[in-house]
Write a structure and sequence with these properties.
Elements (H helix, E strand, L loop, with lengths): L1 H9 L6 E5 L4 E4 L12 H7 L3 E3 L6 E4 L3 E9 H4 L3 H17 L6 E3 L2 E6 L2 E11 L2 E9 L23 H5 L5 H16 L12
Length: about 200
């Protein structure tokens, strides 16, 4: 779906689009991934019931699953006069400001992509830019089962923990509330008004 939307956006047949969803359990490997960062072999992955999918995004191995808000913006960076690095910084800002709405003081780190709280990663980012259009995106840990991260080296970083909004706040945050806050912050950072459409319309 992302590839189709990106092609349509590059041809200027559609406007910028933001997909928001929760995945079923899956490990995804980006272009810079090392198989050594997946700590289970094929038999172990089958036993766990989690597939490993190779993708064309940047970054390394990560986990997606229920309780994680995944966002795939399909955006024409040329129209905004943005380069990939500026775009990554914008996504980080959206996530930091969204977390601020819930009393979580997150930050970015100069040499590491993503969003962090007390040294633990709470949101991962991996994108691809083709014909000036960015797709793939970000994953914000709202209330996923963090045990699934034990079977990988998340984003190739062995000495950092992974955390979630629920772990930090000590209560379950409604996914819908996080989604609404993120849409509001995304709209403000991009200077746009998002109009919701059903998935069946895509």
């Amino acid at each position: 779906m992302q590839r189709c939307l990106a092609a349509e956006r590059a041809s200027r047949n559609i406007t910028d689009t933001l997909l928001l969803l929760e995945h079923t359990h899956v490990y995804t490997a980006g272009r810079r991934s090392s198989r050594e960062h997946v700590l289970l072999d094929a038999v172990g992955l089958r036993h766990l019931g989690v597939p490993l999918i190779e993708t064309d995004r940047g970054g390394q191995v990560t986990y997606h699953g229920p309780g994680q808000l995944v966002g795939y913006p399909v955006m024409d960076l040329r129209e905004r006069g943005m380069g990939p690095r500026q775009y990554l910084r914008m996504l980080e800002r959206v996530l930091v400001e969204t977390l601020t709405d819930f009393g979580i003081h997150a930050h970015t780190e100069d040499d590491l992509t993503g969003v962090w709280v007390y040294g633990s990663k709470i949101a991962a980012i991996g994108v691809k830019v083709s014909r000036g259009v960015a797709f793939h995106g970000f994953a914000l840990n709202v209330d996923p089962d963090l045990d699934y991260y034990r079977h990988i080296v998340p984003c190739g970083i062995a000495d950092r923990d992974v955390t979630s909004m629920t772990r930090l706040l000590k209560y379950a945050v409604p996914m819908d509330a996080v989604r609404k806050a993120l849409v509001r912050r995304f709209s403000a950072c991009c200077g746009v008004t998002l109009q919701q459409v059903p998935a069946s319309a895509l």
